Amino acid sequence: MQKENKYQVESIPMESRHMTYWDMFATWIGANANNGTWFVGGIIAACGFWGGIKALIIASSISYVFLALVGYMGYKTGVTTMAISRASFGIRGSIVPSLVNLTQFVGWTAVNTFIAATSMSYILHTLFGWAVYGQPGGNLGLIVGILIMSGLHLISIISGQRSIQIIERIGIILVIIFVIWESIVVFRDVSFNQIANWKVPLHSQMKFGSAIDTLAAFNLAWVTAGADFTRFTNKARTSTTAPFIGANLGVFGFAFIGLSATISIALTSGVYDPNNSDPSTIANRLGLGIIAMLVIVLTSVTANAVNIQAAGSALNNMFSKITLKRALLIVTVLSTIVTFIPVFYGSFLSAFTAFLDYVGMVLGPIVSIMVVDFFLINKQKYYPAELGDSKGRYWFGGGIHWLAFILWVTGVILYLLLQKVSFIIDYTGATFVVMIVIGVIYYTAMCLGKKENKYAN
């Protein structure tokens, strides 16, 4: 009997790929048209309106170029992003990006679930008179909301990929309507000129470089999920332009309204508090009612469909014997547990910003190494059949490409050091600088022949 290959990888053949351009576009605009994007918009309001817009355009555009590149890698190979990482980190070494992906997407699922559960607490208040989260006794509504959201996520997983596509198609329409509705309400009460000229209180100001890092962490998180979806496309254009345009439109639309609405609340109340920038609080203050809360809940379901899929793929890459569906169920349960952390320990804002620091620190070097390896070192040519072969070209030294691993650690350390440099904090942020430095070093080292032998003896 032939021994089962514990490192096996599934590559989707071209004839089995049926995801259309619209499906891909809807997936990525839906991924960003969510509560977390809105909340990030409220956080970068600390740069002022124009500073926040500038940071949003720069960080998002650069990040989603990488999304398009990784999307193309998925189209060419037919495998998930974490399976692709085996070519640059080694079959065993890919556990590093997989573990990072698992933790960060479990985290993002928890972030969106928490914000949606806050909306659920408002809905429960309207229906049953329960206390809203943030008020005495409000934890009950939040906890019930978390459990309801987790139940919805489980239903979407059990229903399969087709049901997720239907939810996303409906969700994108409701999201667009909601953003227009929210914009009308915001600019009805406060003029655009007032919002554009609002001055951030001195004690609340955020440096431009810090805003770049915040947004880079937020946007790069999607990059390592890119191939998980584009492997189902049969056209290069669908795998590149659809994610780039969809993700950018989603982040611009929702972060813009989060930014504008947060400044609007600061102008009318006289207080800027990023803790109050979540969509549920703002929608409640603007008097949008239960329909707005339901749309916020729906956007969480559509965004988390992507988050859970990416986390499940990472877990599946780490433990090939676990089926993808079972992996999805496991990460949903893990996400539910993580969602409860801000309930009992500290504020949601503190937990969220700490999470973004972690994401920005660990993701940049991984993305840089993967893109340089595929496009510059291997000239867009990987061999999917060998991604699970312990005797093939991606085994390196004992299954680990030590150069990639060492440079990843170097990138993390460099990120921490650069965040203490005033110029970096004020102007550029550390994330993209680290990606450039690590990418150049990796390319140079590989070209000079400093990597280990590709084939195991």
TrEMBL record:
InterPro entries: CodB, Pur-cyt_permease, Pur-cyt_permease_Fcy2/21/22. The keyword Secreted does not apply. It is a multi-pass membrane protein. Its main location: membrane. GO terms for cellular component: plasma membrane. One of its GO terms (molecular function) is cytosine transmembrane transporter activity. The chain crosses the membrane at residues 21-51, 57-75, 95-117, 137-158, 170-188, 208-230, 242-266, 286-306, 327-352, 358-378, 399-418, 424-445. It is found in: Membrane. Keywords: Membrane, Transmembrane, Transmembrane helix, Transport. Pfam families: Transp_cyt_pur. Belongs to the purine-cytosine permease (2.A.39) family. This is Permease for cytosine/purines, uracil, thiamine, allantoin family protein.
